[in-house]
Design brief:
The chain has 159 residues and is α/β, with parallel strands linked by helices. The protein has 5 helices and 7 strands. It has a 5-stranded mixed β-sheet with strand order 1-7-6-4-5, with helices on both faces. It has a two-stranded antiparallel ribbon with strand order 2-3. Helix 4 packs parallel to helix 5.
């Protein structure tokens, strides 16, 4: 089983918008405004991506709890967060639905098309996650800004 410390590990934060644009102003917590974007551009729905699928139900459940905690912190701070894992995990469990990306892809693509940006919660395994990598690809193709934030950094996250 993955330790609590590993589950809460932080990977360096950074913000990107598309393959060639770089953040223009650091706000001190790893988040940045992007060229041509103002605070008002981020008042819409924010997509919270995070790794979920794992062969161990204990890891899946721990990820679900970590994601919910991060979403609640961000929501308490006034961000409009949509967390696909928070929404779909209970539905998948109640209906014995698949938990992998292939089943949820169309749903997530649709929701992402309505979002103003994406936050990637960098829990252990995020870089190997088929779903997270696919969601990042979709966000880049839209394009919307992507912010990489560690579990502990959600307390300090600003746009």
């Amino acid at each position: 089983m993955i330790s609590h410390k590993d589950m809460m590990g932080i990977i360096a934060t950074e913000a990107i918008e598309g393959p060639t644009q770089k953040p223009t102003r650091d706000l001190g917590s790893g988040a940045s405004f992007h060229r041509g974007k103002s605070k008002q551009d981020y008042d819409g729905l924010i997509y919270l991506a995070a790794p979920y699928t794992h062969h161990s139900t204990h890891v899946r459940d721990a990820r679900f709890q970590s994601i919910n905690k991060a979403a609640s912190v961000l929501m308490r701070r006034g961000f409009l967060i949509f967390s696909p894992i928070s929404h779909t995990h209970p539905i998948a469990m109640a209906g014995s639905l698949p938990t992998g990306w292939d089943f949820w892809k169309r749903y997530d693509e649709t929701v992402l098309s309505y979002c103003c940006c994406m936050i990637v919660l960098t829990l252990p395994g995020w870089q190997e996650s088929k779903g997270v990598c696919s969601e990042i690809g979709i966000a880049k193709s839209i394009p919307i800004p992507i912010h990489y934030v560690g579990q502990e950094s959600v307390f300090d996250f600003n746009l």
